[in-house]
Specification:
With 639 residues, the chain is α+β, with helices and mostly antiparallel strands. The protein is 41% helix and 15% strand.
């Protein structure tokens, strides 16, 4: 797990820019630093100030007169093969291929074995060298064999081409800025912003969409006009002769086949896949812990991981609150106490710390945050760092693929109505009220919202939400904002869109919060083999009898206490947002009066809301969202 970046300039890449980018990304890889410089005739590696001491014989980048058009850099967080042999960028033996890699390929041992049988000799025990040799052997198709998370770049010296790839779901980030004779890429937007040739303009269309809907119109977009997210599930090839880019999708949610080859013993198949994912995600040369919210997903991960670790100790980290209406720490304690090799830790996020850390959080996130729940995760990562745990497992993705949100329950009921299965509809409606949420009617209405014409969706949103009111009326007319298609009309469509929109954003929060504290976060539910299997399951294996995520509950039955497995309330990663707002009201008001505001925002309307209590949680999250937009905007324009 690391940070990567690169610069290409036909007129000569600036070493000082590369050093600055590396410094900005230091938190992603404090253990080691490396550079690769290339021009038409040669390729050479260099060290930096943070390069591992045993490599002091390598020339320092700032002491060299080597003139380069291309510079690749790497910041290392040592997880697999923590020795000097894992130093990057890595050049292949024939020196025609070089790689800078961020992520983990969990099945690297199996792929390595195949490559060794083909005659490949390895100089390290790292997964990065496996990726490089797999590319040499199979080309771009090598990524289809990977189980893991990644964003990497391979430079093909002879062909003067750059190959970039991003994992199937966008767990690991990669951003690109390009002009006719220049491009730069990085794991984080902030490393691109200081570069003189990078246009920092903000997109009013994307900003307006984010204010109104909490997301951009299309998935995989950010708020900068010309800095792009490289798309998940895609490979990119850049020809350095003309800077042309060829994009190829190697994985697509829309094109994946939703069929099961074996419909027998589905629960057993699911458990085997989940267990195998946990096994692969436990591969590490450093200690692995886990986030533990007390919810079903993280509890499942901790249970199976603890079982596989055997006598090895496992530390868990939980956000807890004095406010018992939102506190879940008692559930986390039940899970931890049921497992002999688990040591549990608790952190207590509060308004004062949130206010103190908010600028840091937004700096590390690169973009605004959707609610204060991101801070709870921030505090969990901080706690893990304080206990010197370098790798954490987390339950991200389970709700999206297993149908854990309210809209999925609503869609199930709507699908029964569409099929005229009225008896089943009323039965499932009653059971969902009993076992999932009393607000089943609201779940149905939320699912039905995406059946409405776009204009009616906009009208309803303008009536029910504050978000449109945050935007000046003149700007609303000029922007002509379209409703993002983030909700589907079927269970399958909604799963895909939830992965592309909501989960993608949550993965950014996860990556930035963890890497801010030099922690690698792993998400076992997003093993693509497991995701493909779950997506192919019949809906009644995910929601039935009033129980969401049913198949996961089945495999945990009699393994974890009933109050965890058959728990009825779902809180999510919540924080006491209204309490914190009240505590911070004077500071918030003062800040918002002093801070610069994007031209499209109605600042007077926002200031009126500072003194308002919100009974509606959505309205409250909208307030925090626009507040974070203004904080982010002031940070962005300072570059």
């Amino acid at each position: 797990m690391c940070g990567i970046a690169g610069i290409y300039d036909k007129n000569g890449a600036t070493k000082a820019d590369a050093v600055l980018m590396s410094h900005i990304l230091q938190h992603r890889g404090p253990d080691d630093e490396g550079f690769l410089l290339a021009n038409e005739d040669a390729v050479k590696t260099f060290r930096g100030n943070d390069t591992i001491k045993t490599l002091s014989d390598i020339e320092h980048i700032e002491e060299s007169d080597f003139q380069a058009n291309l510079i690749l850099l790497h910041r290392r967080l040592s997880i697999i093969d923590v020795s000097v042999n894992g130093h990057q960028p890595i050049c292949a033996e024939n020196e025609n291929f070089s790689i800078t890699f961020n992520g983990e390929i969990y099945n690297y041992k199996e792929i390595r074995s195949v490559l060794q049988q083909k005659g490949y000799v390895f100089q390290s025990e790292s997964d990065t060298e496996v990726v490089l040799n797999a590319f040499i052997e199979w080309g771009a198709t090598c990524v289809t064999q990977f189980v893991g998370m990644w964003a990497f770049t391979i430079y093909q010296h002879d062909e003067k081409k750059l190959f970039l790839s991003r994992d199937r779901f966008g767990i690991k980030p990669l951003y690109l800025y390009k002009t006719a004779d220049f491009f730069a890429f990085s794991s984080e937007i902030k490393a691109l912003l200081p570069l003189a040739k990078v246009d920092k303009s903000i997109s009013d269309e994307n900003l307006g969409s984010y204010l109104a809907y909490g997301t951009t119109h299309q998935p995989y977009q950010n708020l900068y006009k010309n800095i792009i997210d490289l798309e998940p599930g895609c490979n990119y090839q850049i020809d350095l002769s003309d800077l042309s880019i060829k994009k190829q999708n190697y994985f697509s949610l829309d094109n994946a086949v939703d069929t099961l080859t074996n419909t027998q013993n589905l629960t057993q198949q699911f458990e085997e896949l989940f267990n195998d994912s946990i096994m692969l995600h436990l591969r590490s040369d450093v200690e692995i812990g886990s986030c533990l919210s007390g919810g079903l997903d993280s509890s499942a991960i901790v249970h199976y991981a603890a079982q596989q670790l055997g006598d090895k100790k496992m530390q868990t980290f939980t956000a807890a609150y004095q406010n018992k209406t939102i506190d879940e720490s008692n559930y986390a304690k039940i899970v931890a106490n049921s497992l002999k090799n688990v040591t549990d830790h608790y952190t207590y996020p509060n308004a004062a710390t949130f206010l103190k850390d908010l600028d840091k959080i937004i700096y590390h996130q690169d973009l605004p945050i959707g609610s204060t729940s991101i801070f709870a995760q921030w505090e969990v990562m901080k706690s893990a760092n304080q206990h010197q745990v370098k790798v954490l497992l987390d339950g991200q993705g389970a709700d999206e693929i297993l149908g854990g949100y309210y809209n999925f329950a609503g869609l199930q009921l709507i699908e029964l109505l569409k099929k005229m299965k009225f008896i089943q509809f009323f039965k499932q409606y009653y059971l969902l009220r009993k076992n999932f949420t009393p607000a089943v009617k609201m779940a149905v209405l939320r699912a039905a919202y995406y059946y409405l014409p776009e204009k009616l969706q906009q009208k309803l949103r303008a009536t029910e939400r504050h978000s449109y009111a945050f935007i000046k009326e003149k700007s609303l007319k000029e922007l002509s904002l379209e409703v993002p298609k983030r909700g589907g009309k079927t269970f399958s469509q909604h799963t895909n869109l939830s992965i592309q929109f909501g989960m993608y954003e949550l993965l950014r929060y996860e990556d930035r919060n963890s890497m801010a504290f030099s922690i690698e976060s792993r998400v076992p539910f997003l093993d693509h083999r497991l995701v493909n299997f779950i997506r192919a399951l019949p809906t009644n294996e995910k929601i039935n009898g009033g129980w969401t995520k049913l198949i996961l509950r089945k495999i945990l039955d009699n393994k974890l206490p009933n109050e965890i497995v058959w728990r009825k309330d779902k809180k999510g990663f919540v924080t006491p947002q209204q309490e914190w707002k009240n505590e911070m009201m004077n500071t918030l008001t003062k800040e918002l009066k002093e801070l610069k505001t994007p031209d499209i925002i109605d600042k007077d309307y926002l200031l009126k809301l500072c003194n308002q209590d919100f009974s509606n949680a959505t309205h409250l999250s909208e307030f925090w969202r626009v507040y974070s937009v203004i904080k982010w905007y002031n940070n962005a324009i300072s570059h």
